[in-house]
From TrEMBL:
Predominant place of localization: membrane
Provenance organism: Microbacterium resistens
Parts of the chain that traverse the membrane: 31-52, 89-115, 135-155, 167-186, 207-229, 267-289
Record keyword Flavoprotein present: no
Keyword set includes Plastid: no
Family stated for the protein in its record: Belongs to the binding-protein-dependent transport system permease family.
Name used for this protein in its record: Multiple sugar transport system permease protein
Length: 303
């Protein structure tokens, strides 16, 4: 009798759980599988073409051949001599890495002040951070160039073509978005932990470094990666603000692709190999910080 009662009590819960899963599922399972397969093909199609073209001959790629008849791995070795890819990668890693670190550190500090303290102009700053995201970066190219040129004439120091000018440019455009990400994340942190630390005599700096920072790692990683990617993928500002010594990897690829627009057969294999080499650091970055990205992107979605 008790067993029958237990089964009667358990089965409705199972039926309720199964019913809730069916309600929350947007598509039936067969259609969901088909949709996932189509999305994977849509993403992996261009990537597989780049991989196969990077180990194929230029004539075969120009003829439309997808699967290589013979592997030519020397494209990955020759490309380092064809273009100055090594220096471009070093410049990109230095500039974008510094932007990511500084942007994340400044963003979490500003966001904590905006969320936890009340002062005049606080709401205006929050609205300004959100409004700055609607300004196209293309419209800011000429003002930024004129500003650095004027600064160079006033201070009598070189600005255009230096690493720090590109660093300041990327930091300016990445900081508003990173700050807004951290504002959304810090809003979900419990205030009780900070209040308990203050009752123990902790200062604001100690609360920020000992309480807020350890709890905000997912949001910090998300803001840092987005700041890194904004500089890594940029061609427009880097092509104007850099010279031969400070040229980034994206500019090196753009110049290499422009030089192949001739009547002869372009170096398709080396172009694809260089593209995959430049994409490898970003892929590694995502794989290393994947678990932080999931937590940081979904933070603030459920309150």
């Amino acid at each position: 009798m008790s067993a029958t009662t237990t089964i009667a009590q358990v089965n409705p819960r199972r039926r309720t759980a199964g019913r809730s899963v069916q309600i929350t599922r947007l598509l039936p399972r067969p259609l969901l599988v088909v949709a996932n397969v189509l999305l994977c093909l849509l993403v992996l199609g261009p990537v597989s073409y780049m991989v196969f073209a990077s180990v194929n001959s230029d004539i075969a790629v120009a003829a439309g051949e997808y699967w290589p008849q013979d592997l030519r791995l020397e494209n990955y070795l020759t490309v380092w001599r064809t273009i100055d890819l090594g220096a471009g990668l070093v410049n990109s890693l230095l500039i974008c890495g510094a932007v990511a670190i500084v942007c994340a550190a400044v963003a979490v500090s500003i966001a904590w002040v905006l969320v936890r303290f009340t002062f005049v102009g606080r709401v205006t700053i929050l609205r300004g951070l959100l409004g700055l995201q609607s300004v196209p970066g293309t419209l800011m190219l000429l003002p930024v160039f004129v500003m650095f040129s004027t600064l160079s004439a006033i201070l009598r120091v070189p600005t255009i073509g230096t690493h720090w000018s590109v660093f300041v440019t990327y930091l300016t455009f990445a900081l508003p978005f990173s700050t807004w990400v951290m504002v959304t994340y810090i809003r979900g942190l419990p205030r009780e932990l900070e209040e308990a630390a203050r009752m123990d005599g902790a200062s604001n700096f100690r609360v920020l470094t000992r309480i807020v920072l350890p709890l905000s790692w997912p949001g910090i990683v998300v803001s840092a990666i987005f700041a890194f990617l904004q500089g890594w993928n940029d061609v427009l500002f880097a092509s104007v603000m850099t010279n031969r010594e400070s040229r980034t990897a994206a500019v090196a690829l753009q110049i290499f692709g422009a030089t192949q627009e001739t009547g002869a057969v372009p170096l398709y294999g080396q172009m694809m190999a260089a593209s995959l080499i430049c994409a490898a650091p970003v892929v590694v970055l995502y794989l290393v910080f994947q678990r932080y990205l999931v937590g940081g992107l979904t933070a603030g979605g459920v309150k």
